[in-house]
Design a protein that fits this description.
- By secondary structure, the chain is an alpha+beta fold.
- The chain has one domain.
- Helix content is about 30%, strand content about 25%.
- It has five helices and six strands.
- Strands 2-1-3-4-5-6 form a six-stranded antiparallel sheet, sandwiched between helices.
- Strand 4 and strand 5 form a beta hairpin.
- Helix 4 packs antiparallel against helix 5.
- The protein starts with 17 loop residues before the first strand and ends with a helix.
Amino acid sequence: MAQQEVAYRSGEQTGSAGFAVAVVRVDGHWRCTPMDNSALDDLDRAITQLRRLGVVGGAVFGLLDVDDEFFMIVRPTPVGVDLMLSDASAALDYDVAADVLDLLRVEPPEDMAEDEVWPQGDLGILADLGLPEAELELIVSEIDLYPDEQLEIIARRCGFAEELSAEIEDLVGV
């Protein structure tokens, strides 16, 4: 998919391009729906949007590709939120990534090589849905892939690749 600017039909425009999709699994069925574009720049809004889905007895999480620079997985829990940030160095340039590190109580990296990634958060965030921690770590560490490509691999591994692809195609008008 490479770099794409997504103009959401339902959200306000913000400074970041990319996409934000809510993923829901209930009774073994996957559904992907667009999140408001504001989720790309505001972690609290992303969490609030996901909580409003009100899924009982299933899984709900958000996949957010910010400017095709990094991605986040946001998964509300009854007592808080689980987070995974693909590259903590994004916190140096993006407030939303810095907000993730703040919630995780992690300092952003100071000196990193350009070909290094520093994932932070719960790498086992989707383990109960078929993506073991070690496999997510491997996907995140693949620096030759764009974030949207990494998210496609995650979706394929968990079993909702078709739903995610259809939603992204709908969002970008392909």
